[in-house]
Amino acid sequence: MESIDEAARTRAARRAWPRWSRAGWAGCALAALSGCGGGLPPIRANLLPPVATVSDDSVTLGDRRFHRVAAPTHELYAQSAAQLPVLQGHLVAASREFARHFGHAPRVAVLLFDAPADPRRDFDFTPFVERRMQVLAFVRGRDAQKDGSLGIDERLLAARLAELFLAAYADSVARTHALAHGGDQPTTRAIDRLPHWFTEAVVSRVARPDAVETGVTFVRQNRPRLMPLRRLFAMARLGMPFWSELAHREGVVRTFSEPSTQTPPTLLAAESTAFGEFLVSRHGPTYLQALADELLAGRSTEDAVAALPGGDEGAPPLEEAWREWLEGN
Fold this sequence. Notes:
single chain, globular, 14 helices, alpha/beta, 6-stranded mixed sheet
């Protein structure tokens, strides 16, 4: 495997860290991943990750000692061994739900630091970058260390893990495409090629499947305020949580009676999630993998849907079918 030159590693590391979303999080270090794309494979029982046991030995990363769990879909490192089973449970749930829709879950890594720590400044992610592995790193605060808790909002954690698996899958498809066509290896995050509605739909249903039906109900209650699909497909990422984080907040799901031509941001998030459910209900869960591959190849959402089975000229226009689905269920 060819190593990434120093400049590419630096650019990847700088791009990888998103804004600090909440106290205690140190963000994500996202790097290119080895290839794993393709097709609509059948879902088999052996794709589900087994329960992994905590390794008896610890490892040194940088100047810190970590306890480790290794599983087919992930590597988990934590300075506190007591937190490994909790994180392992979240990772297994996320990888299993991701595999339902994408045939498999690509291998990722999660690192749990104990404060004081600044992974972005002090930690060298080069070994993960060279293995082309996506990494999610966060810091456990002092209060959590004192009371023995994980110290992380579970809905936020679920959303970040779902996004991590999607980012890893997108990078693997981009790498495979580059190898097949003799192009340069990508130096930017492939997930940024996906339209925001798609990322929202995948992350929310992988993170909290129970939030999907809540989103569909919310959308059906507010059909006159929905954004036309063409505009939804072109929408940029909103600076707000995913629908899976919003769905159960008090006052979010309601019927808008105020006169307005604007679609509220919470309704936009729910509409993206509901549209994903519309596609899955028509074509099955692994349709999202096929659609992701088309989108990562550079097709627009309309062209990608038209290119897949069920999107031929004899089918009703997408907007019409979407509205009928909302009204008829």
